[in-house]
Write a structure and sequence with these properties.
Elements lengths: L7 E4 L6 H10 L4 E4 L7 H15 L3 E7 L2 H21 L7 H4 L2 H13 L5 H6 L16 H8 L9 E3 L2 E5 L3 E7 H6 L3 H5 L17 H9 L4 H10 L1 H9 L1
Parallel strand pairs: 1-2, 1-3, 3-6
Antiparallel strand pairs: 4-5, 5-6
Amino acid sequence: MFNDNINYLIYSSHKTCSQSLKNTLNNNGFLTMHLHTIDKNNYINFKNYCYDYNKKNNKKLEIITILRNPFDRLKSSFFQTFHTDQISFLNVNENDTFVNKNNFNFLFNIFCNKILNNKREEEEYLFNKKNEILRNGLPGMSESLFEIDEIFNYNIINNLEIIDNYYYYENNLIKLYVLSFDKLINNNYLKTIFNINNNILSCNLSSCKIYNKKYINFKKLLLNNEIKNLINDCYNLIFELLYQI
């Protein structure tokens, strides 16, 4: 399922700086892979991979996941999905993506409707070009830390240990590092945790995208209370963890 020679697996939700962290670790000599989500049908396969990794390397798989404010992450994920991913997976011209063809007010309404219809249908939009905008759910709503809890059938979230400005958990198969997105991008955060001297090698930034001005205006629009409450209820544990570090 995965390379069993890696040093780190970044298993982190959509738009949490995972690609940048992967590049940074690789640049420092650590073989690193990253993924955003695992389908429930592959939970057992992933756990078996952890067993095989442990057996082959005589050590536990080291997993990194990154927590980002869900309000910010979901907005960023929406733009990534309906611009960058359309270019990468659907061969859409960058000027013809859903993001670039519509104004930010219309995009905001679509975003809100997708939050209200919270369903995970990530694959459908990738393979059904005509209907990708009609999908109910919003790709990126899955939270990696929740999935890790489910995979190991254990309440990991309530058993995380705070070490400096990050969380740590260990069982018989994995070592889990739970990092803060804000600290990762703003501070020399990695030196303390992984003894890496250079800062994060940023990539895939919204500020470098053709839609950046539209994205800035999009973020200024206010969510109604119903949607705020939905997000707060869905990610309340993530907000609590972020508050503590």
